[in-house]
Amino acid sequence: MTHAASSRRFQAFSLGVLAFTLVVILWGAFVRATGSGAGCGDHWPVCNGEVIPRAPSVQTLIEYTHRLTSGLAMILAVALYVWARKGHAKGHPVRSAAAWALFFMMTEALVGAGIVLLKYVADNASVGRALWMGVHLVNTFLLVGAQTLVIWFSRGRAPLSLRGQGLPGALMGLSILGLLVLGVSGAIAALGDTLFPSTTLAEGLRQDISETAHILIKLRVLHPLLAVSVGAFLVLASRWVARVRPSEDVRRAASAITVLYAVQLGAGVTNLLLLAPVWMQLVHLLLADFVWMAVVVLCAAGLAADAPRVVAEASPASSAEPV
């Protein structure tokens, strides 16, 4: 069952909300990378005990700007939800997608508040902070995914159908799970790069193999290994799904995943060789969000109730043929 497309104004607004959310996410990464998370102390939602900080430091300005933009993102999420409810008939998938987007925006705020109140900022190198960073990353991905689905369904796409999807459904589910695990490892690796920077590549490698290295340094070694393995799985799985769910939307998403992941791997290598400068960390994170959005679209198109189906004649490993 298909639903009517949303108005062009709603489609443009939902796209704008997603774009602004990505900006806020990148600014949050900038806060972490510059060690500005303690710019407002351990106060939340006020900043250093003040609604508007007086004579703020540079770190305070960076953190305070992040809080202001996060607040605006929350307002936009509420507006998107209200518009989705009022502008679409009951049962339209845009309504549920916008509801999830608002839910994850609220949990995003709660996670951010928890990080500040628990003092998991600045030079805190505890395992607890790494765990919270992982939770923060997962919630951020889910938020971006929900906002991506708002845009997707606003174009009149059919709702999802999870029953009877078989192996293609399992592969798409594993793709989502794999990216979440990879994202968590990336968040921990970025935290390790921030807290334990290296002046040369050789020094960084010595840190990685040292038996006395901090746990965050030891964990960051896992990220490139996961990046290669998860990337190979994503490309093969998406191309095979495009064969057994041969809609134009699925094929475009599969092609986007292949291209974006290749660029992302290149960015990861560049980030490593340049010793993780702040600007490259932001580029790497933005590309990760783009890959995630492409996988979400692949799942939405492949699991659509009206998605065409063909009988699979081979396993995913044989999908090296052009799509």
UniProtKB/TrEMBL annotation:
Biological process, per Gene Ontology: heme A biosynthetic process
Protein localization: Membrane
Record has Nucleus as a keyword: no
Chief localization: membrane
Pathway where it operates: Porphyrin-containing compound metabolism
InterPro entries associated with the record: COX15/CtaA_fam, COX15/CtaA_HemeA_synthase
One Pfam family matching this protein: COX15-CtaA
GO molecular function: metal ion binding; oxidoreductase activity
A GO cellular component entry from the record: membrane
This protein's UniProt keywords: Cell membrane, Disulfide bond, Heme biosynthesis, Iron, Membrane, Metal-binding, Oxidoreductase, Transmembrane, Transmembrane helix
Transmembrane segments: 12-30, 64-84, 96-118, 130-154, 166-191, 221-242, 254-276, 282-305
Membrane topology, from the record: Multi-pass membrane protein
Protein name according to UniProt: Cytochrome oxidase assembly protein
Organism (species): Myxococcus xanthus (strain DK1622)
